[in-house]
């Protein structure tokens, strides 16, 4: 109820204006940053700061000035018609308090030039960095025989708007800081996959990203080698779908050669499970945040599967396409990638060392090359470097799927992974 309406009721005056709702204080500012750019593509981060009254949901609109197109987006839902873009909140980040912020990121395509948009609107209000307070509600004219009006009461001062220098809402907790109990189980309806997930999905507090994983040696039956590594990832708030049966039993799939469709079919399984009533993952998955990863032969599977438009990030562990096109996949496949990619190798003793480096050099998308000189070919999976290797994987996924700034600093900053003993990190197009 407005201050004017309250005063009228106190004075005993009956007036229809007493039922007029208060207008909201509005205002917003937007930070739009191109975080990386490569031929025909770019990455961007957007921070939306609410300078007005708290809101429970948000819709940000803008127009691209040069025909750019969003190809993937995280922490929101995009819609685009021509140059006009609308991004609405995800299920977990709709509320923005006064002075608080919501952040999202996306990858896009461009042709010719990539200028930054200049005009944004939050829930229909143009974001200028200023605050608009509601106009005072005029005193209504009394109907009949009003009681004598008391001396005018000074209108209370409007609530102070947030200071432009107020700190925005801190970023969400980095995924690596999570440590959820993990359940390992067979995939519902098929024995072709093992699922690693937080045991209590509701404890995660938000819809979970999905990672499909290909095993070393393209092992499509026995996935015991990766249990420890994939449990590590799942405990950080990810749902991992691995291409092997949960107990190593026969599942009708041959091992030893890459079958990338197993990974893309794993994404489809996750989509069905997210929609299946009674599933522990029912409406618990964020299928706008899907990644593919794999080790050795499984890494090659992941690089091919990552061409699927549902995939938003890919990690290749001790792997890559061969110069001679072995397994039927030449290095020209790298030109089909549309997402950020991280290549990891275990140093010169890793049989995939040269191959990994060559693939990184040829990649045209944002790419990271992370090398641990002591890990060899299996150290990230079963060796002493498993924890630090899987930490790097989680941080990269947190950066590319969740847009987490702390994870980005860890992967790309000089004081993060690159500062750890035995690690060398290179990156490009970020």
Automatic annotation (TrEMBL):
Key words of the record: Periplasm, Signal
Reaction catalyzed: (ethylene terephthalate)(n) + H2O = (ethylene terephthalate)(n-1) + 4-[(2-hydroxyethoxy)carbonyl]benzoate + H(+); a butanoate ester + H2O = an aliphatic alcohol + butanoate + H(+)
First-level EC class: hydrolase
Signal peptide: 1-17
Record's compositionally biased regions (Pro residues): 135-173
InterPro entries the record matches: AB_hydrolase_fold, CBD2, CBM2/CBM3_carb-bd_dom_sf, CBM2_carb-bd_dom_sf, PET_hydrolase/cutinase-like
Stored PROSITE patterns: CBM2 (PS51173)
Domain CBM2: 21-130
UniProt-listed Enzyme Commission number(s): 3.1.1.101
Gene3D superfamilies on file: 2.60.40.290, alpha/beta hydrolase
Compositionally biased spans, kind Polar residues: 188-200
Entries under SUPFAM superfamilies matching the protein: alpha/beta-Hydrolases, Carbohydrate-binding domain
Localization: Periplasm
Region of interest: Disordered: 121-200
Pfam family, one: PETase
Protein name as it appears in the record: poly(ethylene terephthalate) hydrolase
Species this chain originates from: Microbispora bryophytorum subsp. camponoti
